[in-house]
């Protein structure tokens, strides 16, 4: 079964997406509005006394329990809407409907934060300018470069604790505040507060704390009262002036002693906005510095404090965390490479932020009336607070135990399956926290160092968590003691140096050699907000130069609508909140509307950067660019690279670089002599850039359906079962694919030989020139004409518009030109280029030009129809042999790969490779499954059922399995009938075949599913995994539709409710469709 789309997806997701885009109430239907519920207000003052002014956090927790995800309060005439159900918050996070709004408290913080990133209004120009200038400072490369400074301050903390001794009582919030303030100052501004060397906190901290407290207090007092409190007002002004003075002093010192360090301060002083070419004013730099000094330490110190509290209260979690640290790091100094390996620590921090979001909410507003939840109207005058503290306790998302601290709920698989926008401690969208990667690296490092070196001891076992709140929340009165661990070897004098671990300084052997042979032009393009992709592009540029390419590098926007088709292109880019980077927006906007086949001839490769915590938008733009270039006719030089900043982004990039350059020059090896290298150049898989393909051996090849079985239209319905011995070291799982590199038939080869007047033993030497590429067939060495046409080109695919236009240039007769012009104007039913040149006698395109526009041979993918539990060294595939009347009206069309495979004899070698798939059985075999397929769509399900039969023989208990199999006739094409019935008797599957040519009203799989709707519905409600495999234009959509109808009938719900419910089950659907 040849596949075109192997992505697992929910069949109902598209319906949900459509619903979410239909107007302000999320539906085309008129909604019945309801008033937003409200606590009982007091006369005149409304709900001003509803919430504890001094400590609103627990008040909001308790208040939220009285309402269902939303309530409003009237505070002195101003309406405040508090939202905290995931479903409603998910709507609010749509930036096309809602935008950031400054809460009253932040409006007062703006007095000293000005138009810094945190307190700027959306329409203030300095926000966008500063954001673009500063984003690179928080990219993965920049954050890694800050690691030595982070390590420096973390070491100071731990050294202090070691010297205090195990009987000293440690004020956790005080210590974490010193730590995070010193870290942001050193990393961002190369400035040392030296907080651990003084008993008293730096005066900046005291001024900051008092200023934040006053900003909070001002929101709770009438404005007239704020104006008459003269003494308070003067003190507040002194605090603001002091914070500004500290910032100004740091700037003054840098200007007096300039440095080439690429830190945040230099970026502000020297950086230019790539869009407006403007820099930041001194005033705005002051505001940004105050912003970073406040926001850069407040939330992280609270996070670390709450984390230590939870570890003290959950010794089993603490033990597991220390075990991970011991396993990953041992007694070594903690290095940057260790950070992504500390998965459980990552879970602990995420779970801590769920229960104790240090920024307990964020503010939103709307420009026009909006209706959320289908019934609650929000006005532009309303101020919306997304209450993270309550959102993170939504039982529909987090379960009945949502108040419990459980890091396992944040495991990578659980975190990635969370509903959208259910965990929001860093805010939302473009106005979310720019410093998230900085804080996360710092928090993991500090937590790992503390757990590596100390046993944590409760100071007061009876301590009950108390919260203090200003701009953020922190524990109040939290103390502990520490005891050096017996296996810790003591503080190290050696410091981890980021340069020792940076991938940029590591080179493969072939990168150290410079090629003197020119390999032609190469273009490297990037889209980069944070600077990481730009850095990677620079590395590729240097690689290319050293390898002999004439390489240029540039931004994606620069080549909008102007991609050179004769130059290989390497693209490195990322998504920013699911959108293109600033310097890629125009390019992506143009690419969105590029017609198919417009970019025929383009060779390209894409590497995408991202962070898997952004589940909904991870790798969205790199994937889009890669797919659109392919759809437009481009050919991949290498598979898209995926770099995950949650892991080792730089290592992943290095691995992709190696694959990429081996695709360009696979024969490069310092261990092989030049003569052997020349021999490798002649290898078909190497030249076509399929280095991963290796020879497999055909063991069996027999008919499942005879080749003379044709339908009423003359289409061959032959199906074959092929067993292949895999290359040594190959591993597969049921549901994976086998890639096969086919060859053209001798019928096609003979047609090419005939047209170009060549004999079977003619030799051709192809020389490199401006029009002939060396990347798709051998150059500068003899190759037989038969070998060339059989192995290197797609000669049976419909001709592309570019090919037709080139043929037109080489055609003399007007009638032949008219034929070509008509074909150019058509969108389908176009003959292959070889058929066209063979039929049009006045088309005299030279062989070199013909080869130049021909498409290199590509691999085909087939679903594996066996299980490794049957035989790990062999696999089987189920192939539908394509022989049908040509759609362009002349003769028959024969599928290249299916006919090649049908012709393979036992012991023949075939170039193959295992391709992994997400189309897999559940990890838990007790989970029930429903399999739905037709024709060769049975292939992966045969593997599934075979695996279940093997598991039964091993004594495993399995969940129920239904197989709906679509066939034409039970006597002719009921594929694998005998063995399926045997496996059914074992209990591995229950069979539900259906036959379309037997005169019954139940013809197709969707009809059979409806006939069996009770058992299907029962399994649906029992959390069954559903698999759909087969033809994608008709069968798959029909199956999706009938599943929706069944769900509606058995639950007696509306279509909209069914869509919503089924969309929430998308992780349980796997769809594998083909043309």
Q: Explain this structure to me?
A:
It is a single chain. The chain has 4 domains: 1-30 and 918-1075, 3-Layer(aba) Sandwich (Rossmann fold); 111-499, Orthogonal Bundle (Cytochrome p450); 502-675, Rossmann fold, CATH 3.40.50; 687-860, NADPH-cytochrome p450 Reductase, Chain A, domain 3. The protein is of the alpha/beta class and 1075 residues long. The strands form 10 sheets. Strands 13, 14, 15, 16, 17, 18 and 19 form a 7-stranded mixed β-sheet that branches. The protein has a 6-stranded antiparallel β-sheet with strand order 27-22-31-20-21-28, with helices on one face. The protein starts with 12 loop residues before the first helix and ends with a strand. It is built from 39 helices and 36 strands. The protein is globular and about 100 Å long. Helix 7 (147-164) runs antiparallel to helix 8, helix 13 (282-313) runs parallel beside helix 19 (436-453) and helix 29 packs antiparallel against helix 30 (814-825). Helices cover 40% and strands 16% of the residues. The model is unreliable at 1-29, 491-516 and 668-682 (pLDDT under 50). The longest helix is centred in the first third of the chain and has 32 residues, at 282-313.
Task: Describe the sheet with the most strands.
Answer: 7 strands, mixed
**Annotated CATH homologous superfamily of the largest domain:** Cytochrome P450
Head-to-tail CA distance between termini = 10 Å
How many beta-strand segments? 36
Strand content: 15-25%
Question: Cα-atom Rg, whole angstroms?
Answer: 33 Å
Q: Which structural category fits the helices and strands? A: alpha/beta
Unreliable residue runs:
1-29, 491-516, 668-682
**Overall average residue pLDDT:** 85
Overall structural domain count: 4
CATH domain topology of the largest domain: Cytochrome p450
Net shape = globular
User: Number of DSSP helices?
Assistant: 39
CATH architecture of the largest domain: Orthogonal Bundle
Helical fraction equals 25-40%
């Amino acid at each position: 079964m040849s596949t075109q789309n192997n992505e697992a997806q929910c069949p109902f997701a598209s319906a949900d997406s459509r619903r979410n885009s239909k107007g302000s109430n999320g539906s085309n239907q008129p909604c019945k509005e309801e008033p937003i519920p409200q606590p009982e207000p007091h006369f005149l003052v409304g709900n001003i006394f509803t919430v504890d002014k001094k400590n609103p956090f627990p008040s909001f927790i308790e208040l939220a329990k009285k309402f269902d995800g939303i309530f409003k309060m009237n505070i002195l005439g101003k309406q405040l809407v508090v939202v905290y159900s995931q479903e409603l918050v998910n709507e609010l996070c749509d930036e096309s409907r809602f935008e950031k709004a400054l809460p009253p408290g932040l409006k007062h913080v703006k007095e000293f934060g000005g138009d810094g990133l945190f307190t700027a209004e959306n329409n203030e120009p300095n926000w966008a300018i500063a954001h673009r200038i500063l984003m690179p400072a928080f990219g993965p490369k920049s954050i890694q470069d800050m690691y030595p400074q982070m390590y420096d301050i973390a070491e100071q903390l731990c050294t202090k604790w070691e010297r205090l001794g195990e009987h000293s009582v440690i004020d956790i919030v005080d210590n974490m505040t010193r730590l995070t303030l010193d870290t942001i100052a050193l990393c961002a501004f190369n400035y040392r507060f030296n907080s651990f060397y003084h008993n008293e906190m730096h005066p900046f901290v005291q001024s900051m704390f008092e200023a934040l407290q006053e900003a909070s207090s001002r929101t709770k007092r009438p404005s007239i009262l704020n104006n008459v409190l003269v003494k308070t007002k003067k003190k507040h002004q002194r605090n603001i002036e002091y914070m500004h003075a500290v910032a100004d002093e740091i700037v003054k010192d840098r200007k007096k002693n300039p440095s080439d360090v690429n830190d945040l301060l230099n970026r502000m002083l020297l950086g230019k906005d790539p869009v407006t070419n403007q820099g930041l004013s001194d005033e705005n730099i002051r505001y940004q510095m105050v912003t970073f000094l406040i926001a850069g330490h407040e939330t992280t110190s609270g996070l670390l404090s709450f984390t230590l509290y939870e570890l003290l209260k959950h010794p089993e979690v603490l033990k597991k965390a220390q075990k991970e640290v011991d396993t990953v790091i041992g007694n070594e100094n903690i290095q940057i490479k260790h950070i992504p390996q500390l998965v459980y620590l990552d879970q602990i921090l995420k779970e801590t932020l769920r229960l104790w979001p240090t920024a307990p909410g964020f503010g939103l507003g709307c420009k026009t009336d909006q209706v959320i939840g289908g019934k609650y109207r929000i006005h532009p005058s309303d101020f919306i607070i997304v209450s993270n503290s309550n959102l993170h306790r939504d039982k529909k998302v987090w379960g009945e135990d949502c108040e419990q601290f459980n890091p396992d709920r944040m495991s990578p698989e659980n975190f990635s399956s969370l509903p959208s926008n259910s965990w929001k401690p860093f805010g939302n969208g473009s106005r979310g926290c720019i410093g998230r990667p900085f804080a996360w690296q710092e928090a993991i490092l500090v937590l790992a160092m503390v757990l590596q070196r100390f046993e944590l001891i409760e100071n007061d076992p009876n301590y009950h968590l108390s919260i203090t709140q200003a701009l953020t929340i922190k524990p109040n009165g939290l103390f502990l003691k520490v005891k050096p661990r017996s296996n810790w070897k003591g503080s190290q004098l050696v410091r981890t140096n980021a340069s020792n671990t940076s991938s940029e300084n590591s080179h493969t052997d072939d990168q150290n050699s410079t090629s003197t042979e020119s390999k032609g032009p190469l273009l490297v393009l990037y889209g980069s907000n944070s600077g990481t992709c730009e850095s990677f592009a620079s590395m590729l540029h240097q690689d290319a130069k050293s390898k002999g390419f004439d390489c240029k590098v540039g931004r994606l926007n620069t080549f909008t609508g102007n991609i050179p088709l004769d130059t290989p292109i390497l693209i490195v880019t990322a998504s920013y909140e699911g959108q293109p980077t600033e310097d890629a927006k125009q390019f992506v906007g143009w690419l969105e509307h590029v017609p198919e086949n417009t970019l025929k001839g383009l060779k390209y490769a894409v590497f995408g950067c991202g962070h898997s915590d952004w589940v909904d938008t991870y790798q969205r733009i790199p994937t889009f660019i890669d797919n659109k270039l392919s759809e437009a006719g481009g050919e991949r030089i290498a598979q898209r690279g995926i770099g995950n900043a949650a892991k080792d982004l730089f290592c992943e990039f290095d691995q992709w670089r190696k694959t990429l350059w081996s695709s360009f020059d696979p024969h490069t090896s310092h261990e092989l002599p030049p003569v052997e290298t020349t021999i490798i150049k002649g290898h078909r898989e190497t030249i076509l850039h399929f280095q991963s393909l290796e020879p497999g051996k055909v063991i069996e090849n027999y008919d499942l359906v005879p080749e003379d079985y044709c339908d009423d239209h003359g289409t061959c319905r032959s199906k074959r079962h092929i067993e292949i011995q895999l290359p040594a070291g190959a591993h597969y799982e049921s549901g994976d694919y086998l890639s096969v590199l086919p060859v053209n038939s001798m019928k096609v080869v003979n047609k090419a030989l005939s047209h170009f007047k060549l004999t079977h033993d003619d030799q051709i030497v192809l020389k490199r020139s401006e029009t002939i590429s060396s990347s798709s067939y051998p150059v500068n060495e003899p190759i037989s004409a038969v070998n060339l046409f059989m192995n290197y080109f797609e000669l049976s695919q419909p001709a592309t518009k570019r090919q037709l236009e080139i043929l037109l240039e080489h055609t003399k007769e007007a009638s032949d030109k008219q034929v070509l012009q008509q074909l150019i104007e058509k969108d389908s039913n176009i003959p292959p280029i070889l058929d066209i040149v063979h039929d049009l006698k006045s088309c005299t395109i030279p062989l070199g030009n013909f080869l130049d526009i021909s498409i290199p041979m590509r691999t085909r993918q087939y679903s594996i129809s066996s299980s490794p539990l049957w035989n790990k060294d062999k696999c089987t595939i189920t192939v539908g042999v394509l022989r049908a009347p040509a759609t362009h009206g002349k003769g028959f069309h024969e599928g290249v790969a299916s006919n090649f495979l049908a012709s393979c004899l036992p012991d023949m070698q075939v170039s193959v490779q295992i391709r992994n798939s997400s189309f897999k059985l559940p990890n838990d075999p007790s989970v029930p499954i429903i399999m739905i397929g037709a024709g060769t769509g049975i292939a992966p399900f045969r593997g599934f059922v075979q695996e279940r039969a093997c598991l039964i023989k091993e004594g495993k208990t399995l969940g129920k399995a239904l197989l709906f199999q679509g066939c034409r006739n039970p006597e002719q094409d009921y594929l694998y009938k005998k063995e399926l019935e045997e496996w059914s008797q074992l209990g591995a599957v229950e069979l539900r075949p259906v036959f379309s040519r037997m005169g019954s009203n139940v013809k197709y799989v969707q009809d059979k599913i409806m006939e069996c709707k009770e058992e299907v519905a029962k399994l649906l409600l029992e959390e069954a995994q559903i698999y759909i495999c087969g033809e994608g234009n008709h069968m798959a959509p029909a199956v999706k539709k009938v599943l929706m109808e069944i769900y509606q009938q058995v639950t007696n719900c509306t279509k909209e409710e069914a869509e919503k419910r089924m969309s929430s089950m998308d992780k349980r659907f796997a769809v594998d469709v083909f043309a």
